[in-house]
């Protein structure tokens, strides 16, 4: 047999090319107790995001813009894309066989997977299409999700949902913007993956994201200023002359910019929306978890956002989040009060 020549692959070569799937698998390999269930669940979420991303791009062409004519449980007008995105995620999560309870912004009740053969140990809370008011004008929107573990998969019940954000095991969002980006944390930092539509894969483009400790941008719907409480008003007055204002009106996009550039985003409770606008289980908790994992802070003003315990699945809360020094400055206004 002729002697073959071999080219040597150096240690580390190729290691920094991560698709989302490969990265999640590598995390599973580092956790000896892992069963692979979370990996399968995240694959289902990834599939849902790719599906929704493609529909968002085609929306103007295939009659997917506009209202359905119905309102959701929160009395908000439902867009066609909201309904489609909800169906996509619900079906993908059920098909994964790894979910047990599902909570969606679009559904009044939590969903329980009855068939023990289809049921896994995870609870997924999600806003299938966040930023509804921006759908029809083509401005960035997104999907937000939080993942908890059920306490006893033989007996899932309300206590699995009425719990603090400290018990979240993974969270993320996918932004459908000028590029499509998935931001994910499994509780050991935050990583970002950009969808390459030509190959249909999320590729790691933002490893180990850390939010700058202080920024120069404040992001809040100042149209609500007159309804804000005194500390929020005073904080906005304080940053106004020093910072730049940016407000998309899609939480995913405003949080994404805050994560990458630093600064602060807020939707405080006010005299009009006494409990705030953003929903705890599928907007506040996942975003607070990601921001903390990236080294930032999330607060209601007086309480760490992850320490809230909702009473109902659609409960809302005021929220300020972002660079830790900026959020600490905001909190100081609440302490003074
Ligand atoms: P939605 O889930 O119905 O889209 O509502 C949530 C959105 C967030 O994305 C955003 O931060 C906020 O509502 C914007 O509200 P407003 O239009 O009052 O500024
Ligand atoms: Mg939303």
Automatic annotation (TrEMBL):
Pathway info: Carbohydrate biosynthesis
Coiled coil: none
Cofactor list: Mg(2+)
Hydrolase in keyword set: yes
Keyword presence, Metal-binding: yes
GO biological process, any: fructose metabolic process
Complex formation: Homotetramer.
Family the entry assigns: Belongs to the FBPase class 1 family.
Identification of the protein by name: Fructose-1,6-bisphosphatase
């Amino acid at each position: 047999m002729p002697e073959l020549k071999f080219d040597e692959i150096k240690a580390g070569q190729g290691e920094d090319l991560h698709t989302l799937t490969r990265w999640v698998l590598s995390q599973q390999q580092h956790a000896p107790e892992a069963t692979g269930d979370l990996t399968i669940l995240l694959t289902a979420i990834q599939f849902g995001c790719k599906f929704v991303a493609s529909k968002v791009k085609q929306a103007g062409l295939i009659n997917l813009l506009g209202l359905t004519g119905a309102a959701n449980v929160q009395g908000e007008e439902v867009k066609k894309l909201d309904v489609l995105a909800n169906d996509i995620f619900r079906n993908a999560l059920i098909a994964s066989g790894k979910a047990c309870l599902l909570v969606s912004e679009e559904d009044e009740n939590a969903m329980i997977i009855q068939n023990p053969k289809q049921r896994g140990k995870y609870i997924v809370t999600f806003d299938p299409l966040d930023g509804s008011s921006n759908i029809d004008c083509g401005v960035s929107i997104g999907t937000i999700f939080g993942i908890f573990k059920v306490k006893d998969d033989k007996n899932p019940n309300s206590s699995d949902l009425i719990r603090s954000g400290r018990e979240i095991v993974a969270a993320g969002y996918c932004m459908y913007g000028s590029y499509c980006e998935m931001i994910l944390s499994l509780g050991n930092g935050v990583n970002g993956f950009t969808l390459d539509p030509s190959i249909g894969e999320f590729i790691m483009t933002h490893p180990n994201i850390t939010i700058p400790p202080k920024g120069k941008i404040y992001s809040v719907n100042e149209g609500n200023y007159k309804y804000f409480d005194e500390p929020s008003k005073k904080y906005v007055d304080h940053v106004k002359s020093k910072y730049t204002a940016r407000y998309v009106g899609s939480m995913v996009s405003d949080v994404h910019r805050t994560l990458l550039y630093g600064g602060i985003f807020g939707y405080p409770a006010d005299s009009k929306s006494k409990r705030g606008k953003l929903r705890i289980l599928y907007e506040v908790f996942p975003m607070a978890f990601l921001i903390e994992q990236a080294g930032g802070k999330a607060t209601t003003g007086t309480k760490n956002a992850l320490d809230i315990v909702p009473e109902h699945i659609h409960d809302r809360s005021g929220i300020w989040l972002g660079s830790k020094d900026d959020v600490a400055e905001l909190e100081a206004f609440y302490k003074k009060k």
